[in-house]
Structures are given as C-alpha cells and as structure tokens.
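G., before I forget:
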Amino acid sequence: MPLRVENLTVRVGTTGPAIIEDVSLAVAPGEILGVIGESGSGKTTLANALLGYGRDGAAITAGRVEVAGHDIAGTPPAKLARLRGRVVAHVPADPGAAMNPVMRVGAHLAEAARLLGLPGRGREQIGATLTSVGLPADREFLRRYPHQLSGGQQQRVMLALAFFGTPPLVVLDEPTSALDAITQQGVLAIVRELCTQQRTAAVLISHDLDVVTAVADRALVMYGGRVAELGLTAQVLDHGLHPYTQALRAAMPRGERSDIVGIPGRPPRLSERRPGCLFADRCQYAEPDCHEQVPALTAVTTPVVTPVVSTPVAGTTAGPAAEHLVACLHPRPGTPVATFSMVFESGQGAGDGQPHEGLSAQSMCMRYHQRLVVNQVDLVLRPQGCVALVGESGSGKTTLSQMIAGLRVPTSGTVRLAGTTLASTAHARTADQRRRLQYVFQNPYASLNPRKTVRQILAEPARAFHFADADPAGALDAVALSASVLDERPSALSGGERQRVAIARALLCEPDFMVCDEITSALDVSVQATVVELLGRLQRERVLGLLFVTHNLKLAFSIADHVVVMRSGVVVDSAATAGFDAGERSDYTKELLASMTAED
Amino acid sequence: MSGFSMAPVPAVTKLIEAPAAGPAPQRSLLGSALRLRRTQVGIVLLIPLLVIVIAGPSLAPHNPDAFIGPAYAPPSAHALLGTDNLGRDVLSRVLAGGRNTLIVSLLATLLGVAVGTALGLAAALFGGAGGSIAMRLLDVIIAFPQLVLVLLFVSLLGSHDWLTICVVALVWAPQVARVMRGAALSVVEQDFVRYSRSLGTSRLQVLWREVLPNVTGPLSVEFGIRLTYSIALIAGLGFLGFGPPPPTPDWGTMISENQGALAIQPWAVLGPVIGIALATLATNLIAEGFAQANAQGGGYAAAS
Amino acid sequence: MTIFVIRRVAWLIVTAVLLSFVLFFATEALPGNVAIRILGQAATPQSIARLRTQLGLNASLMSQYLTWAGHLLTGNLGRSLASGRTLTSTLGTRVLNSALLVGVTSVIAMPLAVVIGMLLAARRGRVGAEVAGATMLGLISLPQFVIGILLILLLSTGLFHVLPAVTTVAPGQSVVHGPTSLVLPVLTLVLASTPYLARLVAASAAEVLRSEYVVAARFRGVRGWPLLFRHVLPNALVPTVQAMTLTVAYLAGGIVIVESVFNYPGIGQAFVSAVANRDVPTIQIIALGLALVYLVLNLIGDVVSILLTPRLRTAMS
C-alpha cells in the first residue's frame, strides 16, 4: 500500500491546538485521491505531514503515516531526507517560487539524478523524464533559469523532478492554482498519465472541485482539520451526504445562469474550535447533538454510485476502496441544484439601445513598453446591466477596467458616462462623476488602510463627497455585516469580510456603476459565492450597473447577462450569456469553453 | 499620473485567505516594542542618562571647572573617580558634560529625521522622474563619509552647537530620506492609497492620512539608529578636538585630554567612556526593539 | 551588460566632477586670508599681494577651479599649507598605511562576518546564538573610538600589557617597519564592522532558509552541505555583496577617527590635522579621495550583485 494514514493528528507544538485531527485515509497504486478543502481546513498541513514536515512548529502528535511501509512520523530527520524524493515526492502550488533562482533547469535535474545515485549524471533519464512531461530535452532548455520559463513550464519541471525517481507516492499541493485554465488542463493530463504509467499513488490537494472531478479517482473533503466525507469522486461530489460537501457544490459556479449559494459565516480558526461538529454553526440542518458530539467517520451502507468509470486502477471496483464514508450525525441526500432563470429581467446588459444613459468605453488603448496591452477595445455597460469581462492573466482586462475607472491613464480612447466624456484620471473628473462610478479592488488585504478602523474607512467617501447624512451602519447592513465591525481594524476581519467592507465603501456613494475587479479571486469558493450572491441582491435592489472582471468563465456565466472575452489586449468575443455557446465563437473562447466542460 | 505605478497589474490567482493559525490582533507598535526585553533594557539604561541631562550639573559634588587636587589623582572619598589632567573632579565633569552631548545629539537627530522624512515621503508620492533625480543628488551627499563631511563644515565655519546640530542633521537627512522613500513607496503602491487618490484627495492629504501612519515602524527605527550614530558622531567630534571649547566639560574631549594617562588614572577616561557607551547602547537597544516589533507586525513598510 | 557598466561609470565621473566642484567652492569660501597665513609675521601688503598673484588667488574662482582640476589630472596634488611640502610626497606613504589598515581589516572581517552570520541563522533560538547576538548588538552600539579606547585599556595599559598603546612608527614611515602598530587599530575596526555585516548575513540567510525553494529542495531530499552551498549560500550572499562594499566604504570613513585614537600615520590622521590647521589643499584632496573610493566601491558592489543575480543578468543582455 503506497499510503496509509491512520488517525493522524498534527498540533501546533506538542500541546497546542490541533490543526488536523484524526485523519485516516489510504491510497492504492496508480490511484489519485483528491483532497478538497478551503482555508483553515488543514489540507496543506496534511500534505506536509505526508513528507514528515511541519511548518512553523507543527508536529505530528498522534496517529500514523505509512508510506510504502515506512513510518514517516517515527523516522528521524536524517533518514527522512533519504525517503524524500525516492519514496514520497512533492509538487508545490507556486512552481516559480519553488525553483532556486540561481540554478538552471539542467542543474535542478542533475541534482535529482545525483540524489538517486544515477550513473553518468543520468543524462538519458533526464531526457526521458522531460519528454514524459512534454518539455524539450535539448541543451538550450536545460540551460534556462527558472525566471525564463512560463508558469506551465515551471510546473512541468516540478512534475519531472517529482516523478523522476518513480516514487510510490506523490503529493501535489494545489498544483494548478497559479496556472491559466487552459494550461491547467495540460498539467492535469500529465499527472493522470504519469500516475497510470508508473503506478504511482497520488494525493492531490485542491480547493477547486472541478480539478478534483477531472483527475481524481476518489475524493476526500476536509473541514476544520477533520475529514467530512470520503469516497469515489462522483459519489462524493454529485451525491454527497455531508451538508458541507453539498453546500460546497452549491457554491461552485456551474457555468450556467443559476444562483450560486454561499455558506454564511466563516471556518473556525484554530483557537475557536469548539466541541461537537465544527460545521454545526454554519449548517442549516444542525440539531442539538451536533454541537456536543464529534461525528465519527462512518461508512454509508448503500452507495448511490457504482463505479462505471474505466479507470485502470486496481481495487476500486469493490471492497474498502469503494466505500463511502461520512462524518455527520445526520447525513441526508442533498436537494438537486435548481437552475433559476436570469435574475436580471432586462437581459440587455450590453449592446445597442440607449448607450447615452450607460457607461461606455471606446477605442481604449494602452501601450506599455512598446506592447499594446489593451488594443482598440469598445465596451458598453447599461444601467442595471451586468457585463462580465473575462480573460486570463495578461489579457488586459484589469488594465481596461482600471482605465475605465480613471485609475490608469489610457494611451488613447474615451470613456463616457451618460453621454459625458470623462477625464482620463479620476482625480480630474468632477466629484459627481467620481461618485457615480466606483471601483472595488481585487486584493482585500491591500485595499483597506490597516491603520484605520472600519468606521474611519467608511467615513472617507462621506468626507470626500460631503455627504450630510452618511450611514455607515446601514451600508454594513446592506453587505450583511454586523455594525460591531465598525470599530475593528481590517486585520481582525477575514478576506471575505474585508471585501464586503470594500463593497460597502463603494455603496455609500450610491453609485450608478460599479467596477468589480476580480474581487473574488483571492477568496475561498464558499466565500466567493456569498459575495456574488450579495452583488446579485444589490443589483436587484438598486439601479446598479456592474462590470465584473474575472478569469473564471463559469463564474461569469453565473452572474452576468453579457460576457466579453479578452485575449492579449483584444476583445475576441462579446455576446449575451443566454445562448453563449450556441453562437459563433472564436477559437480561443471555444478552447476556454472546452476546458470548462472537460472538467465536469 | 505621478505616484501610480505604470507596470501591468499582476494576476493574483492564489488563495490568500487568513491562515488557520489564530487571529492576529493589530497591536500598536509601541506596545509590541515595549514587550520586548531589549527595549526594556534600553529604557532602563536610559534612565540614568535622563537624570544626567535634566539634573547633571546640579548633582555634581564639585564645580566641574574647579581644581580640587593634583592632576591624575586616583579615586578617593574626595573625588570618587579621581581627578583629570588639570586636577578637576572627573565625576563632576562627567555629570556636567553629558548634557551638552546628549541634547545636541537629540536635536540634530530630530531635525535630520524630520527633514529626511518629509523629503522621502514627498519623493515617494510626488515622485516619478523628479524623485529619482533628487535621490541621485542625495546619493552625492551620502557619498561622503559622515565624519569627513562634518569635519569639512567645521573647518569652514568653526564649531558651535547650533552649527553642529544643523550639519549633523544635514548629514542624516539624505540617508533618512532614502530609507523613508523606500518605505513610503511600498505603501503608495497599495490599493487603499490609489483609492484615496481616486476620491480626489490631494496628495498632501494622502501623505498625511494614508501614508504616514503606515510608516511609523521604519520611522521609529530610523530615529533610534540615527540617534545612536549622532551620539557617536558628536562624541567623536569632541574627541578629535572639535567639540565645545575648553574648559567646558564634554565627554569626547575628556577622553582625548586624558588618554595619555590611561596607564595611571584610567578613570579619567573610563568615566566619559561609560557615559557614551551607556547612551549609545540604550538608544540602539530601543531602536532594535522597534525594529523587531515592526518586523513581527508585518506591516506594509518593513524596516530596512 | 557592458552598456550598463559604461552608463554607471559615466554617472560616476559626473558625480565625481560635481563633488570636486562643490568641494572646491566650499573650501575656498574659508574666511581668512591664505596668503597672510603662509607669510605669517613677515606679511606686508606688498608681499601679500605678490604671494596672492603667485598663488593665482586673484583669478576668478572658476578659473582657479579649472587650474586645480587640471593639476589633479596630471598628478599634481598641490602643496600643504601647513608644511609647505608637496602633497604627493607627504600623503604617499600615508595612503599606503591606511590602505593596509583597511585591507587587513576587510580580509579578516568579511569572511568572519559571513561565517558568524551563517551560524547565527542556522542556530537560531539556541543559547549560543542568543548570546552571540546580544554581544554583537552591544558592539554595534559602541562608537569606534570607544571600542579603541577599551581595547587599549584591556590589552595595553590595563589588564594585559601586550601591545603598544600608540603607534611606534614615525609619521611618514610605512607601517611595515612596526607591524605591531597594526594590531590594535585592525582589531578595533574588525570589532566595529563585523557585527553589522554578520547580522545582515544572518538576516539574509534566515530569509533564504524560510524560502519556498529551500523547502522544495528539502522535499526532494537535499540536505547538509549540498543544501547550504548550492541553495542557501548563493541566494543569501547576493544582498550581502552590496553590504560588503558599503562596509569597506564605511571603514574608509572610520579610519579618520580610529587613526587618531592610535596616532596611526595614515590619511585619516592627516585629515584631522589638516582640518585643525585649515590646510585647505590637503582637506580638498583627502576628502575628494575618500569620496571617490566610496563611489567606486558602490559601483563595484552594484555590478557584482547584478552579475550574481541571474534574473537581472539575463535582463541586461
């Protein structure tokens, strides 16, 4: 058995709070186990524990980790180093940061060859392993430094390094989070192929349900450091019995116009872990005993799904590996996710009609270092419409949205608000124009002054626009934050809460249009869903036009009535959400759509 | 639009939700610094110095300029630290001589840090091409070793207290400006500053309200470090003979006056040496305390 | 890459010229009639006038500067006002003595600082590291001349009578004649500069040890010396290189006061007496020389750190 984990508990120090508690799992050769979790679930701690590593003083205090027969927890550090790379390998989330900036690609591989004791610098093997991950094996490539590789290439090098010694177990910690959607697909395919070929067991950690669905044979859902559910992927994700799993599913953008539902509240911090089920205070089905008794991981007697998928993996057709385990005192099948019709009845998010009432950008261009980052882009946003601006990193979408908001000076182009041309910098616009067009930043950790209280932060627009009767408590209420937050500093709030404060700050101005620049990219899926829900509600209640910038096409479909796809500074597609995939779409958009559906 | 970076915005696709390891309350910098042992030791060491500054001359058992015995007499009940090269009471001179050095150092540091911070912050926000050129010009001044620069001025204009204060401040201002500019730049790039500007707030108001409160960390560290260097510099000036004119007691001057008799009456030198060492140790420890507190707080502007 | 170096060198020349300009004008503004000082008692209005013409002091300040600059470039450093002898002869041995002092100090202090810094980073939190860290904190606080005096007390006059308290070499002579005179000044400077550098190395190394790529390397099974020499050291040294050049520059300035403590026959001591005597030509030359040393060292530091960083190196070419 490549991996067997029994009742693993990792604490902060030997007596501190438990980061992960009583985790048990097993992975067979050639099998991929997807570990799903959001922030605070302990998934990275689990990944590190499989390598015998504890960050910042974390230590294994109970349980057993057995990799190919070796007892990881009981191995002294000196011997551990010999196991790493040969018996268990690791693929990181950020491949750019995980490569030594002063070592060439070839040097990284040669070092691995040396550690494996390969004769003659292992040149043949290096070539073979590079080919297996789809990278060139020529001298020119080997001589490159990490910063001369793209993100996808870097991750492939990390995969090559991990699979080089054909270890029985490979741990992948969010291997595709830092990559574009299309690159993600390629990397995941390599992982799948290598695991099958080398009969390697893999533990793949991800917050993205689609990634797990695409490549994992079985799935394990973690919450608050404990296992919530474990079983075949289709079983867990489509027919999950744990309320958290179901809620997570409902929070994921599904690529069609439907309400995504967030999970209210936030995951418990280490110091806040109370007795009983940790999900109880956010669970809509919670009963009194849920707050007292910790639910044990028990097998479900009648699994819905029988494995039909032809995965060439041994041992998943029957027996313990096909078990469906749930840690809930009152598991129940979830209600099928309903598809609601369009929220915004007007259905004319963009297009012709009465452009002079809305926000429009014409022939926007931005040149940076001889490159056109934004190239002749037109955009129209009607009042109360929602336009999603979709693109990967480098597409120019953020630059465009910032130009519209007056945060960046365009090289050329005009922005008009209700027919009046706006100055290119927000500073030069009239106060009324500034008020009517608000911008919410991507990074909630940088958009609020850490030295101010929420009250002071909300007072700023009131002072700038001379509002006589600003109501900060009311603004917080509109974003579902309690007024007790007013006297806190941003550091006391979670990312989702900070983003709500940022939205409240924008709402205080009673704007006509709001530009939301990837405001959910840095948030957990369930938190993202709550913010999107909030935006939907705000649109319903006020006359508010939204320009929603995102890299996630599925998310765009969930919220917008019109989608604009950008690539390398140019608009490649612009169409209403309804019937988007039916119409004539560009090749790039088709690729994006394909990468979406492939993961379902 | 100066003050805004023109580089393309990088995409953040990694999750950066608050880590599971407990809440991080925002303690004040002062609070965290005071909790550290080194700051506490520094403050303890500072107390006798404060006493000297405030009440030094009145605590002296004898008149510092009076001849109370033979030259280089060893410590006795009459003169606890013995006498110096002219037969004056060492202890009295130490108590009286500290005040000048310490006050001049403090004033010079205050002036230098104030000017330097103003320059640095302005360069960061109003920056752009003008800021970089200004920095290059300041680099020219920084090119001179400090003591050399100060001595140059002294050679030109003689040594008076007010002059020393201005010159030493002039020497520190460019270095402080450079550090504060770096600190301010990392704050200016943050979204909340851009937001404030987008509301129409003037640059000056942004500096005052948004930037300055976020650079208090590096500011206090710089102040502590410069104060330490100022004391060393001004004592050094006295040692080289460019301090207050005799017979005014001055720690630096006392050391050079009595260096020749180190073998027979070390206390004439040790007295002022201990005074200087205490002062520099105290200020540096406090500066270190602030540096550590700042680094742990992980604010936007990390100390250099 | 070469273009970058050329540009920096050009900038260096511009700065040097600017400096010399400022220096010259500032020092020439000294009140006091130079001619009177030279002639002393024998000054009569006619002799003063004659001497002024002779010294070229009646010409405009700008042409005086150009003459001076021209002399500099041809190697004529002028004459000392105090001694009357040419500066090339008086300063020659002194420059060598000071260079020797700075050189020996650097050769000892830098490797020492790197080793101590690395050890501090590796053994963080342990008792030995805490004690060492505290000692260095103390040393950093103390002014250089205080360290010097304390060393004299300790090793010369007070506890151990091992070394001479004052230089045994006469001014104008090379220190090679009395090498024991080198020990205390070097020791002082080493004690003054090593802690600062060591802490920088330690901070840099600690950050590297925490970095993602070191963790990733350890996950691949790299450990021990290979980890240190291939992953930690190269990345930790890059920020330290500039600090090292700054340290040498700091030493160049530090010699001014340390040489005075030990009466060491170097240019630092010469500078101090020149200031005391208002010996303008000497002041100008030494100040300019020290500033130039600083600028050149800075340039070398910048270039070396770029060469050591692949990301910057490839961006240049």
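Chain C touches chain A at residues 211-213, 215-223, 226, 230-231, 234-235, 308-311, 314 (CB under 8 Å). DSSP finds 13 helices and no strands in chain C.

More on Monday.
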